[in-house]
Automatic annotation (TrEMBL):
This is Uncharacterized protein. One of its GO terms (cellular component) is membrane. Its main location: membrane. Gene3D superfamilies: Mitochondrial carrier domain. SUPFAM superfamilies: Mitochondrial carrier. InterPro entries: MCP_dom_sf. It is found in: Membrane. The keyword Membrane applies. Keywords: Membrane, Transmembrane. It comes from Melipona bicolor.
Length: 54
């Protein structure tokens, strides 16, 4: 459960960073949404994997 906090945090921050100043986060397109999902997944596993292995 705590890992999803980091996933959605990374996902939403990335979506915010990838948008242009004149567009909303919902209008960034599927490519940038996929990048945000990949970043979110990476952040989740960077935080969660060491806890799984110890």
């Amino acid at each position: 459960m705590p890992g999803y906090f980091f996933f959605f945090g990374g996902y939403e921050v990335t979506r915010e960073l990838l948008r242009k100043p004149d567009e909303s986060r919902n209008d960034i397109g599927w490519q940038k949404t996929m990048v945000a999902g990949a970043v979110g997944g990476s952040v989740l596993w960077l935080v969660r994997f060491p806890a799984d292995c110890s």
